[in-house]
Amino acid sequence: MKKIAMLGTGLIGTFYTMSLHGLRSRDRVVTVYSRSEERGRKFAADFDIPKFTTSLQEAVTDPEVDVVVVGLPNNLHREAIFAAADAGKAVLCTKPLGRNAEEAWEILRKVEQTGVFHGYLEDLVYTPKHLKAHASVEAGAIGKVMWVRSREAHPGPHSDWFWNPEISGGGAILDLGCHCIEIGRSFIGKHIRPLEVVCWADTQVKPIAAEDHAIGLVRYANGAIGQFEVSWCFRGGMELKDEVAGVDGSIRIDNFLRTGFEMFSAPGKGGYVAEKAETESGWIFPVGDEVHELGYNNMFTDMFNALEKGAAPIEDFYDGYVVNAIMDACYRSVKSKKWEPVELKEWRGSDQVEPLTAFVEYDAAYWLVKTETLPDGRRKVILKDKKTGEIIQREG
Ligand SMILES: NC(=O)c1ccc[n+]([C@@H]2O[C@H](COP(=O)([O-])OP(=O)(O)OC[C@H]3O[C@@H](n4cnc5c(N)ncnc54)[C@H](O)[C@@H]3O)[C@@H](O)[C@H]2O)c1
Asked: Looking at the domain assignment, is residue 354 inside a domain?
């Protein structure tokens, strides 16, 4: 059993605690930090947590605590992680790790220098669908991954601080792009180096200084492309969609909105529907078990299993740092309107590049380009002459 200090009593602190205390979990939150005594007391009572405090220091240095979970606004991640590391506690931090790569690098150095366990809480690579799809990709079900499209779009965040880039570090790229970028890395292969990015972003709708909408491409050393689409102005709920194209197959995943639970309610008396749902009446799309569908249960299981085994979790602060470095390049690209290199102070993956190219031999003279069955039933093969390069087609 591990004893946890939860820092933050907002949306993510709530989801994390629901997950940690769900399914009769043996790991328990034993103290919670909130700026507001009233909120801390209520949160502790709601989740059967024995202690609450308005002192971050008191929470992280509590002798009973093994693990600190950081669920605070982005500008406080560094301070909270430094405090936890100085107290010698294992530390798990929500996304994004830092407001930029510099901050993430300082955080990574701190936990490595103090030698504490660190886990990056990127829940969306732990959704039940992602884990199943990822295992299939690893087993070779779709061949090498060429392209991943990941989309997160909703009507905008739920607290003031997200909309202030000095506190949050950025707009939709930093808030949502971090998820999509890591989903792309996860499928393409985290050992493959992200080389460069091109990104468009704009403030289309909201009266804010940061971007409310962005699309980007991350190019990897083997030629694979991770594409992300993020928005804070999408209407109708929260979309979390991924597509993976491999040399031998493809995958489509819809994690959240309209995934097979639809309800029409004229009075709308059902209460909370799902994260970022815009309405409680009319046609609504509830989610059966939100903390599970969003990956929190599998994520904490991996984190605590790794901690107990003395192993690294699937996601650690180095991953958080790489994601921040990719996002920094995105912001540079938005300004320059050009491809920008991903600048990493240290690359811990592979430097060997395995090409995606997978030519299929038809016979001694030809490469197979493709086969096709036409509407009238005829079958065709399209071939390339190995010597001359000529493309021909044959029937039969
Ligand atoms: N899927 C995810 O992984 C996910 C989802 C949502 C949020 N997050 C991340 O979680 C973190 C918190 O986001 P949230 O949605 O819970 O925000 P929130 O606004 O709902 O909650 C933030 C919490 O921090 C407290 N807080 C705010 N300013 C503070 C200050 N100056 N000092 C101390 N406490 C302060 C608030 O009172 C609240 O308890 C962010 O880093 C965000 O990016 C992750």
From this structure: no
